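Final report, closing paragraph on structural work. Over the funding period we assembled a curated collection of sequence-structure pairs, and we close with a single example.
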Amino acid sequence: MLLQKKFFQLLVVGFAALTLTACTKDEDEDEDLIDPPTNSVLTGSLTESRTLTADKKWTLKGYVYVPNGVTLTIEPGTTVVSDVTEKGALCIERGGKIIANGTADKPIVFTSGKAEGSRAPGDWGGVVILGRATTNRTSTPVIEGGLDRPYGGNDDNDNSGSLKYVRIEYAGVAAFANSEINGLTLGGVGSGTTLENIQIVYGNDDAYEFFGGTVNAKYLVAYATADDDFDFDFGYRGKIQFGVAMRDPQFVDNGDAGNGVEADNDGTGSTAAPFTKPVLSNFTWIGPNNASGTLANHNFGNRWRRAAQFVVRNSVLLGWQKAGLSIESDATAQAYKDGAAEFKNNVVHSNAAADIFKSNSSVMTAAAMETKALAEGNVKLTSPDGVLTAPFSLTSPNLAPVAGGAAAAGADFAGLDAFFTPTAYKGAVGATNWLQGWTRFPAKGQ
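Its predicted structure, as stored:
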């Protein structure tokens, strides 16, 4: 009996060990099979904070929301694509946060889910950040593009997170007429938010659109945008330094005009406060320069209209088809005439030589605008040559000033606050090319 009992015990132990080994192996195999596809697709509204790791390619399936109290963290070097059939978009709601801090050698990339060579502007929605900073709306506005989420509030220091070294490619979809998602849409975003080193590539609507808010930014690039490179509305009054816009002559919105800047106080031109008044320095706005095949809807370098105000300093505008600086309402012109708006120490060129400065206002004629501009340190050019090294090379641009040229010296930062880094040169790039390593200037579709 004792021998039989010991044999039975050994048999049970051996069976248990065999069962444990088999179960462990099956569980590992199941984990390998189901973990990547389950954890790499984002859809709907996140219910808890998440981290997207760089070891996987993540997919946005439809509109993805980061709600109040939830933080989405994205590791350097991570790629996020859109589902091909159910176009994605990423929306950070009021009270939600995104921490997407890439590096120059490991940028974070949002792009089309299609293969290189078959990508197209509008393959997906884009990135939307909504905050609690003030706007000039009397009721709580809802962001456009079919997202149906409110933005704005009374906290101008609101913090929606941080984007650094981020590239957003082939975005921009229209939910319906005049209601689009842009490459990066910012609604009521506060100054506690960090925006640095961001590039929009082949956006199908605007590259950047600011709806109110106070967020500041540095090192923003718009490459080959369909509509406007920088669009300001609803009382936006942040500060931006070191911005680049470059147009593809053969790509533009067929239903609208593409501008380096388009700005309105609001769509009706009201005097609602606070006024839309971005403060911009060290921008380089490069138009198509009448290259072969340039499409007709390429428009103005700066288009200030509908009671918008502005400060533009130490910048370069070259190769714009119809005007360098265009002012298009009496209220905007009055602000410029009275000094509430500023355009100083800039280099301006347009292929429409008679309309480098253009007025659609009874307050100031184009000649009066030009007289004021030239008295305030601006340089008017009849040719774009000899200013920047290779500004019209679409896929390998060099925006450094030419030695002795109009952009090499003469910047003036008097009256600008400590946010702005003083430079001697005008435009976005000096001796150090901050675009290297993390930006991309592909041919369309790549």
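Residues 1-38 have pLDDT under 50 and may be disordered. The first helix runs from residue 2 to 39. We thank the funder for supporting this effort.
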